Amino acid sequence: MERARAVFFGSGEFAVPVLQALAAAPEVKLVGVVSTPPRPAGRRAVPTATPVARAVETLGCPLQLPARLRDPAAVAAIAALEPDLGILSDYGRIVPRAILDLPDRGILNLHPSLLPRHRGASPIPATILDGDAATGVTLFRMDEGMDTGPIVAVERLALSGREDAPALERRLAEMAAVLLSRSLGPWLRGELAAVPQPADGVTVTRLLRREDGRLDPRRAAPVLERQVRAYRPWPGTWLETEAGRLGVLQGTLAPGDGVSGGVPPAAVGTLVPDGPGLALVAGDGGLLRLLEVQPAGGRVMDGAAFRRGHPRIVGTVVGTVAG
User: Fold this and answer.
1) Architecture of the domain whose range is 4-204
2) Does 210-322 carry CATH code 3.10.25.10?
3) pTM score, two decimals?
4) Mean pLDDT of successive 10-residue segments in the chain (323 residues)?
5) How far apart are CA 94 and CA 114, in angstroms?
């Protein structure tokens, strides 16, 4: 069988192993990669290429960086590659019908959730935040909806409940690359059918905002602990304290009902001793131990070091409750 001409659409870190798997696949010839243009990054807002664009440098493959896929020039440039198949992963842009219709074998998307659960922009944080017992990667044929196309193949992963977003993303990216390698040949030979997604169990995620990282102590302690893991590194999680905004980089649950270090039960939102460190009293009376924190403009430190530098923080109430 003649190798299919494949075009890859991707931007973020999740997409890099998928791109590498596609480039190495014997069933296809990678004729082009489409990514998003460089974006300002860091305090100096230096234009920075996407992880996929950087990865292409080692592949020697033509790279396109259209600002808008709907532009006729962008459609024409991709059509000129004469693709038989498209593969998309972590691209971050809407793909218009004019491009979806270009390849005879369609455009396949590798999405890091068990569709139809967690469609949309932030499936990995949503998986952790919701305390899902399992997740996975879904390979599906794209249509004009938001992750609504028919499913081609699925790979499941049981979760321990200790994963954070970066670690889970890396694991799922590796699974996505393997799933693609395993599915490409059967799909091109017509041996895999695309099955419509079930109507039940649909959830939709959105782009995360900076404000999503605020820890509201009125929530239960397990929810706050999952939030810390889910929103690492973006948008991050934090508390508004009397010493200013305090980033919470790592936290864990402690047993109890607002009691830690021998002190009496405290009100929701109170910062209480946790041995030499600090804990937050949550809405269910449980405690979120603040293992690693970062004061605004300061260095990363453990909770004990922060408490030593701010001894009067013990017994204060964080901003969401106090204000």
Assistant:
1) 3-Layer(aba) Sandwich (3.40)
2) yes
3) 0.94
4) 94 98 98 95 86 94 95 97 98 96 97 98 98 98 97 98 98 98 97 97 97 96 98 97 96 72 73 95 95 96 97 91 47
5) 20
